[in-house]
Amino acid sequence: MTERLAPDEGGIARAAALLRAGETVAFPTETVYGLGADATDARAVAAIFAAKGRPRFNPLIAHYARAEAAFADVVATPLAAALAEAFWPGPLTLVLPRREGSRVADLVSAGLSALAVRVPAHPLARALLAAAARPIAAPSANRSGHVSPTSAAHVLAELEGRIAAVIDGGACPVGVESTVLDLSGAAPRLLRPGGVSVEALAPLTGPLARAAGDAALLSPGLLKSHYAPTLPLRRDAVRIAGNEALLAFGAPLAGAALVFQLSAEGDLDEAAARLFAGLRFLDAEGSARGLAGIAAMPVPEVGLGLAINDRLARAAYREAPASWEGGKSG
Ligand code: TXA
Ligand code: MG
């Protein structure tokens, strides 16, 4: 049902034709796989939400082959232009005021006056965007609330039969989603830590205010209970129980029933690239073995460690049980 496309000229041409026909196609980026649709076609964009099972219309990132094309749809500030020059193509998303007369469907920005734009670096993404010759709206290609996919197999495990095609480009090199920076207000704000570290941005942005509290409203994809595995996850583990699976970073704690090593050398870039595959593996294998939960070792809060810790915090977050809501039942 879902076409598997090879990472070659033929595959790109087929994917671009499907996108131009209003279909949804998953494709690799340097961060995670995206689920793309023609951003100028509201019906095609709506099909993304249906395929993901998103409960409501969260705003999506519009992807472009070139910065000039992105800045035709949003109003670039001098800082936006400088950031684009320094970090595009790459894992940075800029939220900027929509330009009057932009062809991007209102549904892409969920009716907000600001639109998120990004120029990805992955050669297959760039080739696809060039061939499609239009902005492509693309959230991560997972079912709503699940861990982002970093391989075509991850995409198919959740979206087989729900999307037209996937380009199999192997594993995503960065492994965590793009950094989302809101430049639509008076001062730049970090909406989501990601593939470009705040240390790398600082020379241009200065110290970044991390959006807090109201962030879920400003950037609905930032809801706390994102990336939820089935097994409960606890963070900053310094001891491990015999019925727990271990997400290791550096020398592993002894005594775990199951171990996934993010990076034996404690390399944060390697750990980011392996994070989502590790969570998927421990969740599936740990559940199959009847383990009680996943314990994640501490990860330092520098470089890509911010993005890793952000995703782990979301994976660890549990909604209060429904029975807590004023004694409602059923
Ligand atoms: O690396 C990535 O960014 C991947 C690849 C496919 O490009 N895409 C991705 O998309 O992670 P998604 O939809 O899973 O996350 C987009 C994030 C969400 O947190 C969303 O709320 C925020 O960007 N966002 C999108 N448009 C926005 C807007 N207009 N204002 C504020 N936040 C926005
Ligand atoms: Mg996502």
Write the layout of secondary structure elements.
Layout: E1 3-5, H1 9-20, E2 25-28, E3 33-38, H2 42-52, E4 61-63, H3 67-70, H4 78-87, E5 92-97, E6 114-118, H5 123-132, E7 136-137, H6 152-159, E8 165-167, E9 179-182, E10 189-192, H7 198-205, E11 209-210, H8 215-218, E12 233-234, E13 244-248, E14 258-261, H9 268-288, E15 293-296, H10 305-316
Helix pairs in contact: 1-5
The protein binds threonylcarbamoyladenylate (TXA) and magnesium ion.
Oligomer: single chain
Q: How many β-strand stretches?
A: 15
Helix content: 25-40%
**Strand portion:** 15-25%
Q: Could you say which overall geometry the principal axes of the C-alpha atoms support?
A: globular
Number of helices: 10
Heterogens: threonylcarbamoyladenylate, magnesium ion
Content-based structural category? alpha/beta
Give start-end ranges of low-pLDDT stretches: 213-218, 321-330
Trace the largest sheet across and list its strands: 1-8-2-3-7-4-6-5-9-10-11
> What's the alpha carbon Rg, rounded to whole Å?
20 Å
The major pleated sheet works out as: 11 strands, mixed
Give the N-terminus to C-terminus distance in angstroms. Answer: 36 Å
Give the overall pLDDT as a whole number: 91
**H-E string:** EHEEHEHHEEHEHEEEHEHEEEHEH
